[in-house]
């Protein structure tokens, strides 16, 4: 049981206040800080703070003793690699629109690019590793997101509500085939439009969205999002693609699970994210980074309908966000102000505890104890005994627990 020092990623879409405030640093930060990475990702692993003050990379610890750190079943299942990465996301501006491959797609794509000799750090590399990248994001504040294809009849209604001469034929195209195949056809048409055609269509769409907002139309929230994206990326086909996706606003504690193929875009807010320990991303647009349209179309899942919102399976002070991802499971521990009750946490495998509110005490039967302040996290290897967690003060407290999912084949 050891405290962690975690890496901060300074992407341009990040906040200058959220992560510094969480970590107790001066606010605002000199530059945007977008993600706090907690885990053993090779690009930015956490560091374990030893009792002698010496730091050691969590990645090195896992590599040196995978069975002791991960447990034998998890070490065997994931090749001696910690299968999950925990993050804090602080999105001040929208990220890129993207999807992630399945395990089979990632393995095939990685092998193909290896045979082609594309360097793993090349900007045009789609598959820097051979693993899937499912993810779950749980809101800490109001969190805005586009995720999954909206039910086609609702999208047809949206397209008709903002209809322009250039847009009308696309509403007709989807109306003639209001199903996943029709969505695929429309999506493919839009993201492969010649730039000259985009430059004619997008201003029409944005002007119509402005008018819809002024009239307080049914799709005002969706139109505001399109206008936001169009202002930042005025010539990008991803603005059109955003018309096809569910627009969600998550309240604190609500989560969405993004399996392979789910096209999504985080817009604004703060959240805890848990994902498979992978870098495989297929981008659709709204980014200066590499976009590979043919490969994206092989990965994207055009299944459609409302995006399920998870509120966790509750048991006393604990909520568990169950998914079918074998790489991870996320749970949340909550204490109201004045509640000082203990929560037992088993030692079924490797886990990370992250304190997001208040101060808590983590203690084991062998007498080992660690105090976690807001923004701090602790690494619990599989070889460690079970622990108990309770608040240190009478204030509200919250801890997120990241563990591996099932380690069975």
* Largest sheet: spatial strand order: 5-4-1-21-18-23-16-15-14
Helix- and strand-based class?
alpha+beta
Number of domains: 3
- CATH superfamily membership of the largest domain: Jelly Rolls
Helical residue percent band = 25-40%
Note the quaternary state here: single chain
The general outline is globular
Per DSSP E runs of 2 or more residues, the count of β-strands stands at 23
Taking all residues together, what is the mean pLDDT? 95
N-to-C CA distance: 28 Å
User: What is the fold-level CATH name, i.e. the topology of the largest domain?
Assistant: Jelly Rolls
What's the alpha carbon Rg, rounded to whole Å? Answer: 22 Å
What kind of sheet is the major sheet? 9 strands, antiparallel
Number of helices: 12
Taken as a percent bin, the fraction of beta residues is 25-35%
Q: Which regions contain 5 or more consecutive residues with pLDDT less than 50?
A: none
CATH architecture of the largest domain: Sandwich
Instruction: Give the CATH class of the largest domain.
Output: Mainly Beta
Overall description:
By secondary structure, the chain is an alpha+beta fold. The protein folds into 3 domains: 2-146 and 250-291, Sandwich (Jelly Rolls), CATH 2.60.120.10; 151-244, Phosphomannose Isomerase, domain 2; 313-403, Jelly Rolls, CATH 2.60.120.10. 28% of the residues lie in helices and 29% in strands. It has 12 helices and 23 strands. It has helices at residues 18-22, 58-64, 66-70, 72-77, 103-116, 152-161, 165-176, 180-191, 195-214, 220-232, 238-241, 293-299; strands at residues 2-5, 7-9, 35-39, 47-49, 55-57, 84-91, 97-99, 135-139, 143-149, 245-250, 255-258, 264-276, 282-285, 313-315, 318-321, 329-335, 343-345, 351-357, 360-364, 369-372, 377-380, 387-391, 397-403. The strands form 4 sheets. A 9-stranded antiparallel β-sheet has the order 5-4-1-21-18-23-16-15-14. Strands 2, 3, 6, 8, 9, 10, 11 and 12 form an 8-stranded antiparallel β-sheet that branches. A 4-stranded antiparallel β-sheet has the order 17-22-19-20, with no helix packed on it. Strand 19 and strand 20 (369-372) form a beta hairpin. Helix 6 (152-161) packs antiparallel against helix 7, helix 7 (165-176) packs antiparallel against helix 8 and helix 9 (195-214) packs across helix 10. It is globular and about 70 Å long. The two termini are 28 Å apart. The relative contact order is 0.18. The model has no long low-confidence stretch (mean pLDDT 95).
């Amino acid at each position: 049981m050891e405290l962690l020092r975690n890496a901060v990623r300074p992407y341009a879409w990040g906040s200058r206040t959220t992560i510094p405030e969480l970590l107790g640093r001066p606010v605002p930060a000199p530059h945007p800080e977008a993600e706090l990475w907690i885990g053993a990702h090779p690009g930015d692993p956490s560091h374990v703070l030893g009792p002698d003050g010496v730091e050691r990379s969590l990645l090195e610890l896992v590599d040196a003793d995978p069975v002791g750190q991960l447990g034998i079943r998890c070490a065997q299942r994931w090749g001696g690699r910690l299968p999950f990465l925990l993050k804090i996301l602080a999105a001040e501006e929208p990220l890129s629109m993207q999807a992630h491959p399945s395990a089979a797609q990632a393995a095939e794509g990685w092998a193909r690019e290896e045979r082609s000799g594309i360097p793993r750090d090349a900007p045009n590399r789609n598959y820097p590793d051979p693993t899937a990248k499912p993810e779950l994001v749980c809101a800490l504040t109001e969190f805005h997101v586009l995720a999954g294809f909206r039910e086609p009849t609702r999208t047809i209604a949206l397209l008709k509500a903002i209809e322009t001469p250039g847009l009308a034929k696309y509403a007709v195209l989807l109306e003639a085939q209001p199903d996943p195949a029709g969505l695929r056809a429309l999506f493919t048409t839009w993201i492969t439009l010649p730039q000259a055609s985009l430059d004619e269509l997008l201003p029409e769409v944005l002007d119509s969205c402005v008018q819809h907002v002024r009239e307080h139309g049914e799709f005002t929230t969706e139109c505001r999002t399109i206008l936001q994206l169009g202002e930042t990326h005025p010539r990008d086909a991803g603005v059109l693609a955003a018309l096809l996706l569910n627009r969600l606003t998550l309240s604190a504690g609500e989560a969405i699970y993004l399996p392979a193929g789910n096209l999504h875009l985080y817009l604004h807010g703060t959240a805890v994210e848990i994902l498979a320990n992978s870098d495989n991303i297929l981008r659709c647009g709204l980014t200066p980074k590499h976009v590979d349209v043919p490969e994206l179309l092989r990965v994207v899942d055009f299944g459609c309908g409302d995006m399920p919102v998870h509120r966790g399976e509750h048991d006393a002070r604990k909520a568990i966000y169950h998914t079918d991802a074998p790489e991870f499971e996320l749970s949340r521990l909550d204490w109201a102000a004045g509640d000082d009750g203990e929560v037992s946490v088993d030692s079924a495998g490797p886990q990370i505890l992250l304190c997001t509110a208040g101060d808590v005490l983590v203690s084991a039967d062998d007498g080992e104890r660690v105090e976690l302040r807001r923004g701090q996290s602790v690494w619990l290897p599989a070889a460690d005994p079970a622990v108990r967690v309770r608040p240190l003060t009478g204030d509200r407290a919250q801890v997120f627990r990241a563990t591996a999912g099932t380690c069975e084949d």
